[in-house]
Specification:
homodimer, alpha/beta, Isopropylmalate Dehydrogenase, 46% helix, 16% strand, globular, disordered C terminus
């Protein structure tokens, strides 16, 4: 908050590159006078866009590169051949402390691979997660993992609980966020073994920096039952996409219903203020941005197809987390946290925190 | 269609027992003149309700029992102590051919346990699935498994594809339903190994009784991209509940938006015909009923808290499937199907079809 906060942008990421990234950065620059940018990519293309944004005057450093990771590159290709690309350089700026957070609308898999490659794990975190902000009837919740990994051990689920609660604290300013484990409702099958184990671990742990609520089900997400929902990445990704699809489906039905008769059309016209309010709530650009958590730095993945307003949401998200000192808090939480979890762990990690950097 | 079709009802299941089950049966009896019922449960309570329903006159046989499986009974308890209960007797009637389908609003876990205990697997099906009917912008799709099991092998996912396509054929009258495997979108992690294996099996199979579409994502469900969506039960249950929660959430937002100002209220009043149409589309009672598939008989699980209209949907569903000869078709499909899958199976089952009745 005091002094500038520098955000590294992969200016070439996404479907539109600088034509969306730069205007998006301009919108966030108006909202947050403390923001400065380092933009990585084609200097001429970036410069042309920057010059159109008065809010960016004197606040942008451009680092030229023509190397871009393509949207269909595999993670392994990104690792082998991505050095010097706009995405790589943005993450490197975070690693070297020249930027507080990196934002990219590029290839998710490549970004995750480079995030893991270039930034060190926090504490004994085995795997990073992607956290999504989920609008609810109460406010907003955080759901993780929405697709960084397939499957998660009980230890990893506990890690996600901690990472998510740290993010909730930074973003929602809730001192003790409530955390739920996503599970299925049928009593007798009650989830995979890892989920049951994580439940037992969290129930038994003392001194957690959050309130463990217990199991939640899919419909608890939209209801806002808890601040943080923990789930492994396969089911988490499916839940997220299914909710997006359901929202789109109901939007279609609503439009059909409001254009089905002259009376409905007139009514919809009269109620247009209400519909605008609804549309704002359902606007996916409002909560654009998957947050990569677990390594020593924050990276935000914007939707590749979003517009400047959507990209600005992703930048805002990164700004909020960095300005709240998320990483420092997470590092401190992790230290305290794993002490509390050691006892009941079925197979406690034998290596020291620093040695457990696997994947 | 010709001649009566007998439906076995667990009259004591659900939150309200005969007070909902019997009026629900009455509604379906009006819609389907061929329906007859055997109702299992407390004779006096059932009789009192039946007497209120003119449509049921002369079409109900009551089998008295006071033994009821409680809503919190564990599956193991249902198996050990459920004999002679209303739920048990309803499934037994299906096994013995006295009824074409059983419908219960009772405990899901108990019903699944008894379904597996009392009815034999079809062909070499290893595990039954629960299939849900999912309203989409196109029409309706079938999603399975929505919670019978946690996890599924590639072979089991292929089985679900077959079971779901058979159900789609019987219910939607589509000769070759399209089938998709639910997966996550990020290219490089592309799902669990079982999902990848099932994908390879289905891609390579010849002569399938459905069109294998390939992977779909969560937002394809509501879009109606395919007729049948295959997923293991943990993620499937979470997807279903998440969609229900999202629909409820948007309904809340819509109500708020339409009552936020006088103009909006007036508009909503004018457009009430449109809102009614929307409400009908979103009414969960319209698609009430999880279908248990995979053993030699159909059982339908109604929501426990539904009303008579919702229970009637579950009965209608059972009627449709039985009157279309679903089980006979599935048995025939399974025979043909597993021939086509043998070749590319990574570990082909060594036992004959009948010997593979596991778990």
């Amino acid at each position: 908050m005091t002094g500038p906060l520098i955000i590294a942008l992969d200016a070439m990421g996404g479907d539109f590159g600088p034509a969306v990234v730069v205007p998006g950065a301009g919108i966030s620059a108006v909202r947050h006078p403390g923001i400065r940018y380092i933009m990585f990519g084609d200097e001429a293309a970036i410069r042309a866009e920057v010059d159109k944004q008065p809010s960016l005057a004197g606040r942008v450093e451009i680092v030229h590169t023509t190397h871009v990771i393509s949207s269909d590159a595999k993670p392994s290709q990104a690792i082998r051949r991505g050095k010097g690309s706009s995405m790589w350089l943005a993450l490197e700026a975070v690693r070297e402390g020249r930027a507080a957070v990196a934002v990219s609308a590029g290839n998710t898999g490549a970004l995750m691979a480079l995030y893991r490659l270039l930034l060190k794990p926090l504490g004994d975190i085995e795997r990073p997660a992607i956290a999504a902000i989920w609008p609810t009837v109460r406010a907003e919740s955080i759901v993780l993992d929405v697709g960084a990994n397939i499957g998660a051990s009980s230890k990893q689920l506990c890690d996600f609980a901690l990472l998510g609660s740290g993010m909730a604290r930074a973003l929602f300013h809730i001192e003790r966020p409530s955390v739920g484990l996503l599970n299925v409702g049928v009593e007798e099958i009650k989830g995979a073994d890892e989920v049951k184990e994580a439940h037992a671990l969290l129930r038994g742990a003392q001194g957690l920096p959050f309130d463990y609520h217990g199991y939640v089900e899919g419909d608890d997400i939209g209801a806002g039952t808890v601040d943080v929902i923990v789930v492994e990445g396969f089911a988490g990704n499916i839940a997220l996409k299914t909710a997006e699809g359901t929202a789109r489906q109901i939007g279609t039905w609503l439009r059909e219903a409001m254009t089905g008769s002259t009376l409905s059309k007139m009514g919809a016209l009269l109620a247009q203020g209400g519909f605008r309010a609804l549309k704002r709530k359902m606007d996916p650009r409002r909560v654009n941005g998957g947050t990569f958590l677990g390594h020593n730095g924050v990276a935000i993945k914007s939707h590749g197809g979003t517009d400047a307003l959507g990209f600005a949401s992703a930048v805002d998200l990164g700004y909020d987390m960095a300005s709240q000192g998320l990483i420092e808090r997470l590092a401190a939480d992790l230290k305290a946290f794993h002490g509390t979890l050691q006892v009941p762990l079925p197979a406690p990690p034998s290596a020291a925190a620093d040695g457990a950097r696997g994947s």
